[in-house]
Amino acid sequence: MSDNEPLVKEIYIDASPDLVFSFLSERDKMLRWTGLTLDVDPQPGGVFALNPNSSEAVRGEYVEVIPPRRIVFTWGWEDSAVGVPPGSTTVEIDLVAQGDGTLVRLTHRNLPGGAVRPMHDAGWNQLLERLRIVAAGGDPGPNPGCPTARAAPVLRDAQTT
Fold first, then answer.
1. Which distant-in-sequence residues (6+ apart) come within 8 Å of 84 by Cβ?
2. Do 130 and 33 contact (CB within 8 A), yes or no?
3. Which element (helix H / strand E) includes 120?
4. Residue 140 CA, distance from chain mean position
């Protein structure tokens, strides 16, 4: 059973939408802020496969790619114990130019209830903060990999409309 309310996160990044988009669509740049291994083909029907650490794997497929404004892909975990099968949820990332930077709005749809939602909430907080640092020219340091490995910074929850 899924939670009808999408998980929505927003973060401002001091970089252009073009640059931020490159960190969402180019494998080598994505690896700087995501996981240990990554296999991506950012085009509709292309593979999205992320291993955030040595024991977990996320699998999905790209649904929509509109440079430099929007990327949509399905998401789920290979480990059935997580309760989110590969491709069973959808992640939408929208980029909106704001001044000299970019507002990144991430919407994760169809997440199951229970412990899954807080796990993804913490994970997206951590990953979006890492994206903010790297896209602004910084070094986010080693990725602790698992969203529960270290407290993630709190980002503002967006109001859904």
1. 75, 76, 77, 111, 112, 116
2. yes
3. helix 116-135
4. 15
The answer to whether the pTM exceeds 0.85 is: yes
d(CA 16, CA 148) in angstroms, rounded, equals 31
Residue spans of beta strands (DSSP E) within the chain: 7-13, 37-40, 47-51, 58-66, 70-75, 89-98, 101-109
What domains lie within the chain, and their CATH numbers?
7-135 (3.30.530.20)
- pLDDT tens digits for range 24-80: 999 999 999 997 889 999 999 999 999 887 778 999 999 999 999 999 999 999 999
Both structure tokens of 19: 């640059």
What digits encode the pLDDT tens for the residues 82-122? 999 999 999 999 999 999 999 999 999 999 999 999 999 99
43: tokens are 């085009």
